[in-house]
Amino acid sequence: MSITSFNPPVRTLMGPGPSDVHPRILAAMARPTIGHLDPLFVNMMDEMKVLLQYAFKTENALTLPVSAPGSAGMETCFVNLVEPGDKVIVCQNGVFGMRMTENVVRSGGVAIVVQDAWGQPVDPNKVEQAFKENPDARFLAFVQAETSTGAYSDAKTLTKLAHGHGALVIVDAVTSLGGSQLEVDAWGIDAIYSGSQKCLSCTPGLSPVSFGERAVEVIKNRKTKVQSWFLDMNLVMNYWGGGTKRAYHHTAPINALYGLHEALVMLQDEGLENSWTRHTNLHLALKAGFEALGLSFVVPEGSRLPQLNSVTIPEGVDDAQVRGTLLQRYNLEIGAGLGDLAGKIWRFGLMGHSATPKNVIFALAALESVLTELKAPINRGVALDAAQQVLLAKGY
Fold first, then answer.
1. What residue numbers bound the domain in which 351 lies?
2. Residue 243: pLDDT over 80
3. Binding of substrate: at which residues (predicted)?
4. Which residues define the annotated binding site for substrate?
């Protein structure tokens, strides 16, 4: 047996994540590895915290990247905050709300589930009713940007509602950080987690988290030990706490952190609000193209994520065949539907470095070509012009 080096093809990643990684970030990750307690690396850690605080729009001292993917960021929030017997109202409108529920249960908490249809945002009225029925609930957990459907929920309103009932909030911002409006301090979000591989254009494997003062007090005053040693913020904060003296906790993924640092520098250079605007503008162009083709969105207008566009598959079209052809012929990756929406929708990501005018036009052209070949019931020859008109109007 002789195994040789793995050389992947160059793909255009327009699925639900990861997104295309910017060459600057790949170059940063190729820089020399130094020790995770090296004074220069410690200085970079301090810069990383400042950059993450900028991205989250927060001054929370406990803001750091967990050394694992976004799912570990989710678990970090739940295992540190939820103790056995705690009631947590969990909003489910897709896959990741379901995963929140699983985390509550595994932490020993009691999950009070608020259900909304897949493709719909979280309904604040249902959450209000859940609090009335469970006045002793300690937390509200919801997904701001539900990646499985492309639905965007109102984090500001939901947080205010929870605080009105004396509860803290845990927010999933894996797909929203850097791509949609998110204001941790202004909205009063208590605990939040994200991922490096979506709108930040970094490689998968890191999960930015941020805990506000009220959440930190809960962590410090737990009656029971955090069930995960690795994710215990009481221990991790001694490594990421600030200053030059750090307590060893684990060997940080040094080169991956170089990449995230570079990604956050690029976000800073573009400007956070400019990044939000770019994602929105390119979504509008892609939307115009889809609608010209005759495709309809799953999520109602006004609740759509600009960076995750879910559209219904035309009648009689084979989902897997289209995605397979796009990948093999055009090196273009798009996402399939999950759960109840499997085989019914496609998910087109416009995240970070993948969110470009070029990719909007490329995706529409490739999709129209494949659907035309399959004799799908679409409107031909109009999608590119519709998208181009929006791009020109937005100054691209």
1. 272-393
2. no
3. 347
4. 347
